[in-house]
Amino acid sequence: MGFDSETGENKRDGRWNRRALQVSEAQRRVLAAAGRAASELTPLAECGGRRLAESLRATSDWPPFARAGLDGYAVRAADTALASPQAPATLRVTQAVAAGELALATVKPGTAARIMTGAAMPEGADAVVMLEQTAEASAGGEAAVLVKAVASPGQNVAPRGEEFRHGSLIAEAGALLTPGHVALLGTFGYAAVPVYKRPRVAVFATGSELLPVEAPLAPGRIRDSNSAMIAALVRQSGGEPLLCGTLPDEPGAVRKALADAASEADLIITTGGVSVGDYDAMAELLRELDEWKEPEEGAAEATSLASQWSFESHSSLASHSTFEIRSSSESSSLEADSPLEKGSAVNTQWVQAQQQGECMLLFNRVSMRPGSPTSAALINGRLVLALSGNPGACFVGFELFAGPSIRAMQREPSPVPASVTAVLGADFGKGSPHTRYVRSKLRFGKDGRVHADVLAFGKSSMMASLAESDGLAVIPSGSRGAAAGELVKVLLLKRIYS
Amino acid sequence: MGFDSETGENKRDGRWNRRALQVSEAQRRVLAAAGRAASELTPLAECGGRRLAESLRATSDWPPFARAGLDGYAVRAADTALASPQAPATLRVTQAVAAGELALATVKPGTAARIMTGAAMPEGADAVVMLEQTAEASAGGEAAVLVKAVASPGQNVAPRGEEFRHGSLIAEAGALLTPGHVALLGTFGYAAVPVYKRPRVAVFATGSELLPVEAPLAPGRIRDSNSAMIAALVRQSGGEPLLCGTLPDEPGAVRKALADAASEADLIITTGGVSVGDYDAMAELLRELDEWKEPEEGAAEATSLASQWSFESHSSLASHSTFEIRSSSESSSLEADSPLEKGSAVNTQWVQAQQQGECMLLFNRVSMRPGSPTSAALINGRLVLALSGNPGACFVGFELFAGPSIRAMQREPSPVPASVTAVLGADFGKGSPHTRYVRSKLRFGKDGRVHADVLAFGKSSMMASLAESDGLAVIPSGSRGAAAGELVKVLLLKRIYS
Known about the structure:
Chains A, B: GO terms for molecular function: metal ion binding; molybdopterin molybdotransferase activity. Chains A, B: It catalyses: adenylyl-molybdopterin + molybdate = Mo-molybdopterin + AMP + H(+). Two copies of one chain form a homodimer. By secondary structure, chain A is of the alpha/beta class. Chain A has helices at about 25-30, 180-185, 225-235, 250-265, 280-290, 300-305, 330-335, 350-355, 390-410, and strands spanning about 40-45, 55, 65-70, 70-75, 90-95, 110-115, 125-130, 135-140, 140-145, 155-160, 170, 190-195, 200-205, 210, 220-225, 240-245, 265-270, 360-365, 370, 375-380, 380-385, 420-425, 435-445, 450-455, 470-475, 485-490. Chain A folds into four domains: about 15-40 and about 200-410, Molybdenum Cofactor Biosythetic Enzyme, Chain A (3-Layer(aba) Sandwich); about 40-60 and about 165-195, Molybdopterin biosynthesis moea protein, domain 2 (Alpha-Beta Complex), CATH 3.90.105; about 65-160, Molybdopterin biosynthesis moeA protein, domain 3; about 420-490, Beta-clip (Beta Barrel), CATH 2.40.340.10. Helix content of chain A is about 20%, strand content about 25%. Chain A has a six-stranded mixed β-sheet with strand order 7-4-6-5-9-8, with no helix packed on it. A six-stranded mixed β-sheet of chain A has the order 16-13-17-21-20-18, with helices on both faces. A five-stranded mixed beta barrel of chain A has the order 22-24-23-25-26. In chain A, a hairpin with a 2-residue loop joins strand 8 (about 135-140) and strand 9 (about 140-145). The longest helix of chain A is centred in the last third of the chain and has 19 residues, at about 390-410. Residues about 1-15, about 295-315 and about 320-345 of chain A have low confidence and may be disordered. Chains A and B meet through helix 2, strand 15, helix 3, helix 9 and strand 22 of A and helix 2, strand 15, helix 3, helix 9 and strand 22 of B.
């Protein structure tokens, strides 16, 4: 592996002795440790965009009765068997049925009922003839209709249970509720809908160069733009951001701030301070965690460190119970809930650590560009994601770890970003020992193909490309980069697209 | 044109004498009549997903000063011209500069400054050498650094103004604010951001068969699922829904309910009652409007009808002023705001009618399937969209007209749904005299192509396919439909994807 241009790695002290995890393994650890949100009931008209906390089922057949599909006449098909424009069938009209009304009488042979869209089919009738195929008439002084075409049984009728049978599944727990789901839930009488609570996400920035956004610029200083960006990302991932300002400069104060946040929030995101600079407080704190507790070891030492932290919990996480020790058999049902945990025995420890309120380093280096110093830990059982302070790296770190965590807490079955295969728009020449996540804009060609245009201003420290990015092109590690016209994987950035 | 299976058209009375507009012309009328939202200031951390109400510009250069790109040593590149691992340049380290601090002294020839990522470059220095290319040393008892590689001027330095010049555009009015925009706005000190107010959208259902969602089913009746679905769609389009329940059955009461709503809301959406059934109150009201005022005529009669309606306005629309007559030259700037209005002289009349608080039918039939009876009118200058009551048709009508209206009110430059070209997944055999909008799910192939899979349960009356749809495949009018493997246009349904 070559040098590390982001951390300036030179192995001179412990700061640089970080083992880089592959992104997929880092995601696995984070998702296993993310915990699960509690549920709440929300009014139907407000549940769009939330995630369902229980699988819900049809409370009746749908349609609940055979319905007329359009405005016309309900007839017995057999009565029209010989009908044609030249020799229409004449049927006596005995009643009219509006939607919401019930027919007064059975449709007997030789009769018809005027019927409106959505009305329940009268007994006896088995087809609806559209108005255009009819003419009004009278038969012996009574209202009648001339039917000019043969009707087949079932024609223009939506039979009972055509779309849903009573008890069939509407949507599974974890589903993101679309407007179409809302319609179905309304149809089946779910006026209040069980959804997962929005995970509460504490957001801290670190860095003594940071000014509040409202402050005038000062020499050598910049405004904290990451906190507001993270707040927007948290909201668009289904969480509720709690902006906590800037972390203090010394590790003791950082530790206290994070422990306080751990008792209020379900997830903690910090930006900055994770690299190898002389003043990187987050990195120092995470090293300290690492010394107390190696991930591969048992949980015994961790609890002794955890006792330095505060314990009270106001969280919206369901399964979290600080320091309540569970056996691994008790925790196994939780483990099985998360698809990413399957087949990964080692993940049991992250689940246990989360449930037991432990402190534990999950990783402090990831094989990715930008954002290799991205780190994750449990502090009192709460997931802490320490993202890079460089806006580009912070953004990528959020998309790869924080967004997925917020979604996993709400049992989203596929919490990591979905990907598409796209045609790379231009050479991306730089090879790298790490996988690159390159800010791109997707374009849909007239040829039915998806194209990923790599955006300018894509350096880790740069912001100008963030606003336009709707994808991250994944350039595999290796010496050569990727060429224009190659097919590459592009992660879709999940956003409010409206 | 063949028969109309949705309206059962048979020309027996005025109900069926509706002229069908093409979708694009209907959209043009609706967007011209939609009015413009007022603006408000929102805190930076809450502006993600809103639309910018003013074009905003950089308030400084960015970066505001030359910044170190990584942790290392700030040097004069000329001092390293001969450096190599075998013969490193030895530079005296005179200071350390943390991010947020200013250097105490100029970097003079033969000296270097320890520097952290993001710190302002000291005067004199023109390059940063990463730590890996250095070693600590001492020179005459003073701290020094050995630089083992030639540094080029500007290396690892982000020059002042590299990304933005003071005054350059960050984003234009109407832009949907992404997390990346939020980062930029924070950087430039916009703690409060001018965004368009969310348009308030009154939602009514019609139909005496409708029960409230919380009611038990009753024979022949169904629950009102459209209102909640529309509420979810309104929210995901950037509006604020006001659920108004079910419209009464007679036109006089409908007129009063809509007039009351027109004084409170920026847009009114009704579902149901637009077809040719005997009890379709919305259709009757719209015919009445049509008789009062033909779109092609002047505005004189309309104001006399309008006087039947209530006038007080609590709306969040900026430019609306009931009955204040403006000359067409005064209204021309508004007209020019909407890209869809350009080159369409006739649209002036919709703009004027909106501004002057008029009542006017815009259309009551559109050449589309499902949803051909979809209608639009101005009532006291407020846009009323009368969507079909069939859930599928209601959904398509929303996507084609209501979503675009809500976005146009917030000056979204491209308010109608974006489209992609996709490979149709299966034959869609049915020809139609009208353009079909077919519920589809998009799939991204490993070959870089987009595929549109037509969903089952796609009839106008059906709901089961709504939840999964993320596109509407557009099947042009004609006799043959479209075949599997053909390239078709697919409208993207704009959603919260998080």
